[in-house]
Amino acid sequence: MTRRVLVTGADGYLGLRTVQRLLAETDDRLVLSVRAADRTELADKKSRLERETGTTAHRRVEVVPADLTEDAPLAGVATDLACIVHAAARTNFDIGRDTARRVNADATARVAEFAAACPRLDRFLFLSTLVSVGCRTGDIAETVTEGDVEHANHYEWSKEQAERRLAERFAHLPWSIARLSTIVADDDTGRVTQYNAFHNTLKMLFYGLLSLMPGLPDTPLYLATAEFTARGIVRLTRPETVGGVYHLAPSPDEAVPLGDVMNTVFDIFERDPAFVRRRLLRPEFCDLGTFAFMVDATRGLGASPAAGALRSVAPFSEQMFRPKRFDNSRLRASWPDAPAASGLPLVAATCATLVGTRWGRNPAPNGVTPDAVPQ
User: Which InterPro entries match (predicted)?
Assistant: First the structure.
C-alpha cells in the first residue's frame, strides 16, 4: 500500500540519503521539507533534490519550504500522512544553548504538534543521537532517559530534551526515537562527503596540531556509515515496527576502542611521505583535567591553529572519558538482517580517503570531490 511520508531536513546529509532509500525500497510518496529564505533558494534546493533523487522519482516527490523554528511551520502540508521522519537538526557540538533549544528541541515539539493532527499517522520517527544520554557510563538501555543528566555540550542536551518532550507530551503519538552513532563515511569504501568532529580531529592530528589526545584508550566508539544508518531509518519507518527507542548503531561487541582507532589512524598516516617527513610522534592520552587546562591556556592565542584545534575537540572531549555499552537488542529484533559493522577496516578506509584527498582539497580517486552538505 502506498503511503505518504514527510521527511524534514530532506536536503541535509542524512535526510537526503533517507529520501533516496525510501524511493529505492518503497512505493511511498514523499513530502520533503527544506528551509529556504526565499523563492530563489527554494528553487535551488528543489533542483538539487531532483538531481540527487533521479529524474524518474520526481512524480513521487513534493518539496515544501518550512522553517521549523517558527509557529505552525507545516501548516501548508496536507495531514493525510502515514509517517513523519524528523531529520532536521543542527548537529555541531559547539552549538550555543539557545540555538540548540530552538532548532533541536522546540522545533521537534512543533513537528510533533503537527503530527498529532494527522489522523492516519502510524509512525513518527525522530532522529536523535547516542550521546543524548549525556555523561552516563556503563550499560545504556533503549529507553528514554530518566532523572537528571549531565551533558558534555548543548547539542547533546537539546537532543535529550527533544526525546523527553516526545515521551512526556506526545505519548499518544506512534513515536520512535532512533539514536544514531557517529557517521564517519558514506559507505564501507570510506568515501567522505560530509565532515564532522571525527574528521576534523583526525585533520588536527595529521598536521601536528594536537599532541595530546583526551580520553581513555578503552572507551568504545560507535562508528557507522551513512548507508547503514539510512537503511536502518527506512526499516524503522515501517508500520509493523514497534515504537520506542532504538540504538541505530553497532552492537557493543562491534564498537572499537579509542586506542585501537588511534593506532589504525596513525598506521595510515605513516604511509604518507609528507606526514613521515614531519616526524610527528603519536599523541599521548591525557586526563580530562590536563586537557581542560590546555584549552584554557590557549584562549589568549586567539585564532592560532593550535588554539583552534584544541577548541574544536573540547566540546566532545568529556565523552572520551565516559565509556558506554549501548544495548541495541530492540534494533536487532526489528532488523534481524542488519549488516555487521565494519569496525577498524572502516576507520582505515575513511582515514585513507581523508589523507588521499587532503580532507577534500584534492579529488577522490573516483573523481568525486567531497562537498559541504548541511545536516
Answer: FAR_NAD-bd (IPR013120), Lipid_A_modif_metabolic_enz (IPR050177), NAD(P)-bd_dom_sf (IPR036291)
Within a domain: 284: no
Of 115, 106, 127, the residue nearest 4 (C-alpha): 115
Residue 336: CATH number of its domain? 3.40.50.720
Q: For residue 326, give the C-alpha cell.
A: 549501548
Domain that residue 241 falls in: 4-186+223-255+324-342
Residue 256 · residue 220 · CB < 8 Å: yes
Decide: pTM greater than 0.90: yes
Residue 195 bridge partners (DSSP): none
Instruction: Extract the C-alpha cell encoding 344.
Output: 577498524
Condensed to tens digits (0 to 9), the pLDDT of residues 46-61 reads 999 999 988 555 679 9
Tell whether 55 is covered by a domain.
yes
Evaluate whether 173 touches 115 at the Cβ level (below 8 Å).
yes
Dist. CA 159–CA 161, nearest whole Å: 5
Give the Cα separation of 178 and 184 in Å (integer). Answer: 17
* pLDDT for residue 371: 43
- Enumerate residue ranges in the chain where pLDDT < 50: 367-375
- Cβ neighbors of 198 (< 8 A, separation 6 or more) are 182, 184, 223
Widest Cα–Cα separation across the chain: 64
Give the number of residues written for the chain: 375
Cell of 341: 559493522
Please state the domain count of the chain: 1
Quick one: CA dihedral 196, 197, 202, 203, positive or negative?
positive
Q: Is 155 helix (H, G, I), strand (E, B) or coil?
A: helix
Query: Could you give the CA distance from residue 327 to residue 139 in angstroms, rounded to a whole number?
Result: 7
Between CA 3 and CA 163 the distance in angstroms is 25
Phi, psi of 244 (to 5 degrees): 120, -165
| Residue 139 burial (C-beta neighbours within 10 Å; 0-12, 13-18, 19+) | exposed
Q: Is residue 166 part of a domain?
A: yes
Residue 350 three-state SS: helix
